[in-house]
Design a protein that fits this description.
CATH topology of the largest domain: TIM Barrel
Number of domains: 2
CATH superfamily of the largest domain: Queuine tRNA-ribosyltransferase-like
Low-confidence stretches: none
Pathway: tRNA modification; tRNA-queuosine biosynthesis
Helix content: 40-55%
Pfam family, one: TGT
Number of helices: 15
CATH architecture of the largest domain: Alpha-Beta Barrel
Strand order of the largest sheet: 4-14-13-12-11-10-6-5
Strand content: 15-25%
Organism: Helicobacter canadensis MIT 98-5491
GO cellular component, one term: cytosol
CATH class of the largest domain: Alpha Beta
Catalytic activity: 7-aminomethyl-7-carbaguanine + guanosine(34) in tRNA = 7-aminomethyl-7-carbaguanosine(34) in tRNA + guanine
Number of strands: 16
Largest sheet: 8 strands, parallel
Mean pLDDT: 96
Radius of gyration: 21 Å
């Protein structure tokens, strides 16, 4: 894996990430395809959106259809027919979101399946073995995610546990690389560590020092944010966390967020993002535009012949009116989910592309101010 920084404007960064299934120009937003599928879309839609990478979920794909089945069917790329890159999360977030079905120990995470109640034990090694079966381009280590607010004792335990698991993961991963090389096998799976520490500067520093002292990870994620803390506190945490991470490696803010969150994080040196927000909100009737959000279910759009966003060039905006999308939503038509999801993802992908272009020109501050100015108009 190669990551080349092309330009830094303030703290905002533009780079190129080279993986086995194509280049990724950063900053980048990754559509969430939990089940190897972005809801309501297929691989042709994603290619039309020019999405270079999507996110799948290790926990969900392990349970259904099963990682061994995905391996037999050629890995995620052949299985889904999406020919570009996949990043897979490790299951740490599911331990947080499905806490009633989970028991966490220093050895790993015991899951009780939300599908059939069966029990499964995820260790740092097991999580990587699943992701090797999936043939992810970027694999996340197992981490211990804590909701906020949390006690200092619980956050410290999260850091220590995540560091322990990271060390086990990188040791196992490097052994697999050596074995593949000795066997003459191509090895294109890359591994990211996850920085934890809540919103505490001292804890974030401890976590960063732990992780960067280990054998080289391919990239570093910032986890444990957007889990209950105020937005301003999240931005403040990013402000002091990103400089703690290696400058020459990609930085990935996990599970964030709104367009404003993404712009603020780019301004603080983050390169990669994912969130269910654009597709989930689309399905619920919320549309993101250059001028803020609109609720397509509102009666005021019943006769509106305008596109969803006059500045958008996506398939939906080029062909359909707000009135038609309003009608489809009100009628419960499945076509609505596809058209709205295409637009919201196009908006997010355009947002990071526009940010990248501004960084390359040394005009990120102008982009930043224009972003907020449009929202006020």
């Amino acid at each position: 894996m190669e990551f080349n920084l092309q330009k830094i404007d303030g703290k905002a960064r533009a780079g190129v990430l080279k993986l086995a299934h194509g280049e990724i120009q950063t900053p980048i937003f990754m559509p969430v395809g939990t089940q190897a599928c972005v809801k309501a879309l297929d691989f042709n839609d994603l290619l039309a959106l020019n999405a270079p990478i999507i996110l799948g979920n290790t926990y969900h794909l392990y349970l259904r259809p099963g990682s061994e089945i995905v391996k037999q069917l050629g890995g995620l790329h052949h299985f889904s027919r999406f020919p570009r890159n996949f990043l897979t999360d490790s299951g740490g977030f599911q331990a947080f979101s499905l806490s009633d079905h989970v028991k966490v120990s220093d050895e790993g995470i015991l899951f009780k399946s939300h599908i059939d109640g069966s029990k499964h034990f995820f260790t740092p090694q097991k999580v990587l073995e699943i992701q090797y079966d999936l043939n992810s381009d970027i694999m996340m280590i197992l981490d211990d995610l804590v909701g906020l607010p949390a006690s200092k004792e619980r956050i410290l335990k999260s850091i220590n546990r995540t560091s322990k698991w990271a060390n086990e993961a990188i040791t196992f991963h490097n052994a697999q690389k050596i074995q593949a090389r000795e066997q003459g096998r191509e090895f294109t799976n890359h591994i990211f560590a996850i920085n934890q520490g809540g919103t505490d500067r001292e804890f974030r520093e401890i976590s960063a020092k732990d992780l960067t002292s280990m054998a080289d990870f391919d990239g570093y994620a910032i986890g444990g944010l957007a889990v209950g803390e105020p937005n301003e506190l999240m931005y403040e945490t990013l402000e002091f966390t990103t400089p703690l991470l290696p400058k020459d490696k990609p930085r990935y803010l996990m599970g964030v967020g709104t367009p404003q969150d993404i712009v603020e994080a780019i301004a603080r040196g983050v390169d990669m993002f994912d969130c269910v927000m654009p597709t989930r909100n689309a399905r619920n009737g919320t549309i993101f535009t250059h001028f803020g959000k609109l609720s397509i279910k509102s009666p005021r759009f019943k006769l509106d012949t305008m596109p969803l966003d006059s500045k958008c060039h996506c398939y939906t905006c080029q062909n359909f009116s707000r009135a038609y999308l309003h009608h489809l939503f009100r009628a419960g038509e499945m076509t609505y989910f596809r058209l709205a999801s295409i637009h919201n993802l196009a908006y997010y992908l355009d947002l990071v592309r526009e940010a990248r272009e501004a960084i390359l020109k040394g005009e990120f501050q102008d982009f930043y101010q224009k972003f907020y100015s449009n929202l006020e108009n």
